[in-house]
Amino acid sequence: MTAPAGRAAPSRRPARRRPLLPPAERLRINEIFYSLQGESTYQGLPCVLVRLTGCQMRCVWCDSEHSFYEGDWRAVDEILDEVAGFGCPLVEVTGGEPLLQPGVHTLMARLCDAGYEVLLETGGGLDIGAVDARVRRIVDVKCPGSGECGSNLWSNLERLRPRDELKFVLADGADYEWARDLVRERRLAERCPVLFSVVHGGVEPAALAERVLADRLPVRVQVQLHKLVWGAERRGV
Fold this sequence. Notes:
Blueprint: E1 26-36, E2 46-52, E3 72-75, H1 76-84, E4 90-94, H2 103-113, E5 117-122, E6 136-141, H3 156-159, E7 165-170, H4 173-185, E8 194-198, H5 205-214, E9 220-222, H6 225-230
Parallel strand pairs: 2-4, 4-5, 5-6, 6-7, 7-8, 8-9
Antiparallel strand pairs: 1-2, 1-3
């Protein structure tokens, strides 16, 4: 087909695309938001949360299923710019399971280099050994009630440092007894702070508190603060 007289033929060259960044320099991000830290020993402090897409576990009580598939690819530099815009010194990298993406190590190192205090929340099924030593690692231990107890990477317990944290989410009394026995047998509270948290709407916090006191267990009892403040269904808090 020829172009009409006096008009140049349209270019058929494909549009120029941005070059694809290598895996270490990009991440699929579900959401980035500024809120109060809802759990951990930093509970209640203002914090920027960077939630990554993807998770290999399917805990029956999971409250962030939107992070399994939703998200956009972002360059690490773009993520750092957005985090900086909040002007907050505390940043948590979470998921999903953030350790599934190779670029998370670049992001955490760059955040530490920039002077942020960095927390990593991981499900406990992947090796934490390669995480930057400056990052405080908050490691889940999946109890039987989660449906993912078989996914625990038990060697992670040997990698814990005093500045890390270990978290058990309890769905029922059987989970409590399982976690209590594990804490005692492995003397986990001597390694790092141990957190006992209840599934929202499940075990009553008062019942958990009474059992911890009766058993004289050296753990910190927690509830999900952000859900008490803003409700269980609200995202981005």
